Amino acid sequence: MRWSSMPFPLRLHEHLPLRTARLVLVPLDLSHLDALAAMLADPIVMRHFPRVMTRVESEQWLRRTIDRYQQHGTGLLAVLRADDRGGRPEFLGDCGLQVRVFGGETHLELGYHFTRQAWGHGYATEAARACVTLGLRHGGMAEVVALIRPENGASQAVARRIGMRPGGAVLHAALVHDVWHTSAEPVAGDTLQ
Q: What does the H/E/C string look like for 23-75?
């Protein structure tokens, strides 16, 4: 999809918060910095990314993400699990749709990071499915892509579970990434509430 054919801003944030059976996805803000910085500094979480981030780099990354909400009407979101006892929601990671340009075209890209404590509970799949459903339902887009490192089996499994399929590869951040695709067909297991 060429840049000129993407309707800017996408206005996906008008449909927030996103709620699923167990999660709430809200725009990231500076209140999330401590948890976000801890996650992005974890070498296990970041093993498929170029490197871990310092707190200063995490804050810069967060501020760029917040700026993208205004520019593009979309971006990565905080993924929270509500405390059943009414306490503060637990920060599990981030997930959302970003505007990404590669191969001379503009794409709506699914991206996510999750804390190690959140792994193995299906949260990434639940959040990713909600974000893709939002993008296909309200973004006027025919396709959502995900850039996934070839050795990142866990992210590939999430993509597969939400109906994405690999097709092609790109160089992003000086690393080869497989391009996973899903189209405007109904997303299996649509759980938006």
A: EEEEECCHHHHHHHHHHHCCCCCCCCCCCCCCHHHHHHHHHHHHHHHHHHCCC
Measured CA to CA, the distance from residue 60 to residue 67 in angstroms comes to 11
pTM (whole model) above 0.85: yes
State the sign of the Cα–Cα–Cα–Cα dihedral 16, 187, 98, 55: positive
Contacts of residue 45, Cβ cutoff 8 Å, sequence gap at least 6: 39, 113, 114, 115, 116
Q: Are 164 and 182 in contact (CB under 8 A)?
A: yes
Q: Which residues pair with 111 in a beta bridge?
A: 96
Cα–Cα distances (Å) from 18 to 11, 128, 146, in that order, read 14, 11, 20
114 against 139, higher pLDDT: 114
Of the candidates 129, 111, 168, which has an alpha carbon nearest to the alpha carbon of residue 19?
Answer: 129
